[in-house]
Amino acid sequence: MKSQYALPFTIIVAGALIAGAIFISGKSSTQPPNNSNQSGTITARPYTPGQDHILGNPNAKVKVVEYLDLECPHCKVFNDTMQKIMAYYGPGGNVAWVERPFPLASIHSKAPEEAQAAECAAAQGGDTGYFNFVNKLFEVTPSDNGLDLSQLPVIAQSVGLNGQTLMTCVNAGTYANKIQNSYNEAISYGAQGTPFTLVMIGDQAVALPGEQPYDSMRAAIDAVLANVGATASTTAQ
């Protein structure tokens, strides 16, 4: 069912981005198979407990859904941006961050295995284990296929997971189908590079392609929060 906020959601977010002149062409690492629509308002799969990985309140009115490649240098930068976004909005409980795999194997041959490792981290440690693993991987990798894959169990150990168990899961290809489905999903929404981000109310989303800066993300999120009558945390800095 489409959100009752669909039409005003479109108008308000577009107005905020255009008026502020901040919806820039975000940096992205590559171009997967071409799709004609990379930005705009779309209907997309909402946050799905047990399938998606979430940081923040699962019942948040606004979800920032990121499709990412763990060897993408722009995803690495955007990860820092989203950490700041969640430090600001997370305490208020109205914004949450969801990540979905979108490994671009055509240029980052190691990314699919890294995506599987992140899923295997979640199998061990839940959403906390997942985000701790991803954050550490971004800290370690030089990006652009530069990570030595022998570091995957080391990264797991460093965030309190069992490295051997993680690699058993990776080598079994446990989450290969899930990752492929997520890749196909991103393409169906118009993704042409990473990161590819959706700012969502229910199943209604505004697509923000590329490495959007902090101010751009703030403007989009604030517009959506205002539309649903919610606010950011008053304790945020």
Summarize this entry quickly:
This protein is of the alpha+beta class and 237 residues long.
Describe this structure as you would to a colleague:
The protein contains 7 helices and 6 strands; from the N terminus they run H-E-E-E-H-E-H-H-H-H-E-E-H. With 237 residues, it is α+β, with helices and mostly antiparallel strands. It has a domain at 52-197: Glutaredoxin (3-Layer(aba) Sandwich), CATH 3.40.30. The protein has a 6-stranded mixed beta sheet with strand order 1-6-5-3-4-2. Helix 2 (73-89) links the parallel strand 3 (62-68) and strand 4. The longest helix has 30 residues, at 111-140. The protein is globular, with a radius of gyration of 17 Å.
List its traits.
7 helices; 44% helix; single chain; alpha+beta; 237 residues; Glutaredoxin
Gyration radius, rounded: 17 Å
Average predicted confidence as pLDDT: 86
**Uncertain spans:** 1-7, 15-26, 31-39
H-E string: HEEEHEHHHHEEH
CATH topology value of the domain at 52-197: Glutaredoxin
Report the β-strand fraction as a percent range.
5-15%
In CATH, the architecture of the domain at 52-197 is 3-Layer(aba) Sandwich
DSSP helical segment count: 7
